[in-house]
Design a protein that fits this description.
By secondary structure, the chain is of the alpha/beta class. It is 43% helix and 14% strand. It is built from 17 helices and 14 strands. The strands form three sheets. A six-stranded parallel beta sheet has the order 3-2-1-4-5-6, with helices on both faces. β10, α14 and β11 form a beta-alpha-beta unit. α1 packs across α3, α9 packs across α11 and α12 crosses α13.
C-alpha cells in the first residue's frame, strides 16, 4: 500500500520506518527541511536502538522516502497517518490540537480519491469527529474516512513494540475504512496479533485509559515505597509478592523517582481535563498527577538528607539524565526538577548520561557534563543513580571509593544491594528499603 506519514517525530518516524519494512511504500513529510535532509541521507534525529539501520535499509530498497512537500507525500496515498505533536496546554493541561488540526486541513486539500486518514497522535475523545468536520469544511468534495489508531510504543523498545505489538486498536466508523486498515496491518496476521475493531471514540479513550492505568501503578508502588521505609519493609519484595498475582502483574511496579517522558505526564493531564469537562472527574488520576509531581521534591530531599542535611557547596554526581534508559528524551524527566532543587540548595552538579547530554543542555544549566561514570564521580560528595542505564549496573565501587570525596551513594532505582554497598564502606540510600 501507499502510505503517507505526516510528522517525523518519535511516533511518526518509527511508524513510517516499520511500515516500510513490512513492504509498504511510505513517504514521510515534515516541515523541518534540515530534518528531512538528515533523514534522506540515512541519519536519524532521535536515539532509538536499531532505527538508523532500518532507515538506511528501506531507503536503499526504495520503500521509504522523506519530503517537506505535503502534496507530494499525500496525493497518491491510500492511507495518511497523522503523527504530529499534541502537547499539553499550559493553562489546563488539556491537549493542544492546533498542530493536528492544521495538518488535517492541509491533507484534505491534497488527497486524491478515497483516502483513510489515521490519527496516530494521542488525542482526546471526540477529536476524530472534529478532524472530520474540519476536513469536510476545507474540501467538501473530498472522499475520506477518519480512523483512530493509537500507538503504544515504549521509547527504547519502539521497533519491537511496533513489529510485535500486544494488540492493534482500530477505531473506524465505516466498513470501508476498517477494510483498508486490515489490509495495512495484514502482515500481523501471521503472528496472530489481536486486532481490536471498535468505534472511533472508544479507540481514542483506550489510549488514555491505558497510560493512566500504568501511571497509577507506578505512583502506587512509589507510595508503598514510602510506607516501606517507615515500617521497615522492602518495597522490592512487596512488588514481587503482589506482582505474582496475575490480576496485578509485575510490570510497572519498580519504585523510583516518578514517571516522566512524553506520554504519561501529558496523557494523564489530558484525560483528567477531558473528564472534568465531561462532568465526571477522575479523582484517582488527579491524585496520581499530584503525587507524581511531589515525588521529585521528595527525591531531592532524600538526596539532601543522605548528605547530612546540607549540600551547600557540595558536589553531587548524577548518573542518568533521560527519563528512562535507551533514549535521549528529556521531556518531563525527573532529573530536571531534582537537579534544579539540588542546585537551589547550593549543590554543584556533575552529570553523565550515555545519550541525553545534548538534549539535557537545553533543559539544565550550570552543570559540568562528564565523559563517563567515573569522570562524573571524581571528587563528588555523593553519587546519585537516577536513570537505570545498563552500564550503571556493574560499577566498580573500589574505584569509586578512591576517586570520590565521600563514599555516599543514593540509588533511586534500587539497582544495588544495601548490605553489599555498606560492606564496601559506602553510606547507601535507596527507595523503600532500609
Amino acid at each position: 500500500m501507499k502510505v503517507a506519514i505526516v510528522g517525523t517525530g518519535y511516533v511518526g518516524l518509527v511508524s513510517g520506518v516499520c511500515l516500510s519494512d513490512f513492504g509498504h511504500s511510505v513517504s514521510c513529510v515534515d516541515l523541518d527541511n534540515d530534518k528531512i535532509d538528515l533523514l534522506n541521507s540515512g541519519g536519524v534525529p532521535i536515539y532509538e536502538p536499531g532505527l538508523d539501520v532500518l532507515v538506511e535499509k528501506n531507503i536503499a530498497e526504495g520503500r521509504l522516502s522523506f519530503t517537506a512537500n505535503i502534496e507530494q507525500a499525500v496525493k497518491d496515498a491510500e492511507v495518511v497517518v497523522l503523527a504530529v505533536g499534541t502537547p499539553p496546554r499550559p493553562d489546563d493541561g488539556g491537549a493542544d490540537l492546533s498542530y493536528i488540526c492544521t495538518a488535517a486541513e492541509d491533507v484534505a486539500r491534497h488527497i486524491q480519491g478515497y483516502t483513510v486518514i489515521v490519527t496516530k497522535s494521542t488525542v482526546p475523545v471526540g477529536t476524530g469527529d472534529q478532524l472530520e468536520a474540519l476536513m469536510k469544511a476545507a474540501r467538501p468534495n473530498a472522499e475520506f474516512d477518519v480512523v483512530s489508531n493509537p500507538e503504544f510504543l515504549r521509547e527504547g523498545a519502539a521497533i519491537h513494540d511496533f513489529t510485535k505489538p500486544d494488540r492493534i486498536i482500530i477505531g473506524a466508523e465505516t466498513d470501508r475504512a476498517a477494510a483498508v486498515m486490515r489490509e495495512l496491518y495484514r502482515p500481523y496476521t501471521v503472528s496472530e496479533t489481536p486486532i481490536v475493531m471498535t468505534n472511533r471514540r472508544t479507540s481514542e479513550l483506550i489510549k488514555y485509559a491505558g497510560n493512566a492505568f500504568l501511571a497509577t501503578k507506578i505512583t502506587f508502588i512509589n507510595e508503598m515505597a514510602n510506607l516501606c521505609e517507615q515500617v521497615g519493609a522492602s518495597v522490592n519484595e512487596v512488588a514481587y509478592g503482589i506482582g505474582l498475582d496475575t490480576r496485578i502483574g509485575a510490570k510497572f511496579l519498580n519504585a523510583g523517582p516518578g514517571y516522566g517522558g512524553s506520554c504519561f505526564p501529558k496523557d494523564t493531564r489530558a484525560v483528567a481535563d477531558t473528564a472534568r469537562k465531561a462532568g465526571t472527574p477522575l479523582r484517582i488520576i488527579e491524585t496520581v498527577i499530584e503525587v507524581n509531581k511531589s515525588r521529585k521534591s521528595q527525591m531531592a530531599n532524600k538526596i539532601i538528607s543522605a548528605c547530612g542535611g546540607d549540600i551547600s557547596g557540595k558536589t553531587i554526581a548524577i548518573l542518568g539524565l533521560s527519563f528512562k534508559p535507551d533514549t535521549d528524551d528529556m521531556r518531563e524527566s525527573p532529573s530536571i526538577p531534582i537537579i534544579g532543587a539540588l542546585q537551589a540548595a547550593g549543590a554543584k552538579i556533575r552529570a553523565y548520561d550515555p545519550e541525553a547530554m545534548d538534549e539535557a543542555r537545553q533543559h539544565l544549566s550550570a552543570i559540568t557534563y562528564c565523559d563517563d561514570a567515573y569522570d562524573c564521580a571524581s571528587g563528588a560528595n555523593a553519587l546519585v543513580l537516577l536513570t537505570q542505564w545498563n552500564q550503571f549496573r556493574a560499577l566498580d565501587f573500589e574505584r569509586l571509593g578512591e576517586i570520590m570525596e565521600q563514599k555516599t551513594m543514593i540509588d533511586l532505582r534500587n539497582i544495588y544491594q544495601p548490605d553489599q554497598l555498606r560492606a564496601k564502606g559506602f553510606a547507601y540510600s535507596s527507595i523503600g528499603r532500609v
